[in-house]
Amino acid sequence: MKKVLVIGDGCKDVFQYGKCDRLSPEAPVPVFKPVKATNNGGMAMNVYNNLVALGIDCDIVTDSGVTKTRYVDEVSNQMLLRVDENDVIENINEDLLRSINFDKYAAIVISDYNKGFLDESDIEYISIRHPLVFMDTKKKMGDWCDSVTVIKVNEKEYNKNREYLTGYALELECDLIVTKGKNGSTWNCIENFPIEDEHDVRDLSGAGDTFLAALVADYIKNNDIRSAIRFANKCAAWVVTQKGVVVVDLNKIKI
What global pTM score does this model have? Predict the structure, then answer.
């Protein structure tokens, strides 16, 4: 069994669902009546949970001190408010980082939400110690990313880092994957991978984590980046049809 290490910022995703039947008399805001709540691991924890759901043996190194609480109208699934607590994470302990035996893993997955758990030098340290490193980062990118094997970003992040990422794909001959929501994804700015089946979108929360996990899971099994992108598209397209942050269910996806 090929084993994967996930490393990065974790969080607790809380969805507080409720009813909004009237406006407050004190201000033009809805009165929210809580009905039920869900609680899931998010960010790097969500990547890890999806990999496990896809049958991948995983370890994780994270700090899940952040809590994201979303207040959602139960009927419309419209998010009214998101409250983030403890939004800055302490940097990974240097002794812990340097004690990791990267060689025992088939792949390393960096899920960096730029909350402080990993800095640029940490990511560079990780990426030069393994030949297959997948990364999704919210940081402004630069030369410290050069040894990363596969970078996955969304379209907004790509535009923010366009100058570096264009050179990354062309000059370093690595894999750059840009996700574009309902328009699917692209590989190395030259090949498009559309979403194959139409889906009604209910909630985008965590879809990027699912895409990353599915990309890794398929790639380490088949060693085919195109196959991995198609599979990741399918998994991400399914999770956005669900409420809240959920892990992929292979029984409900057309492979």
Answer: 0.92
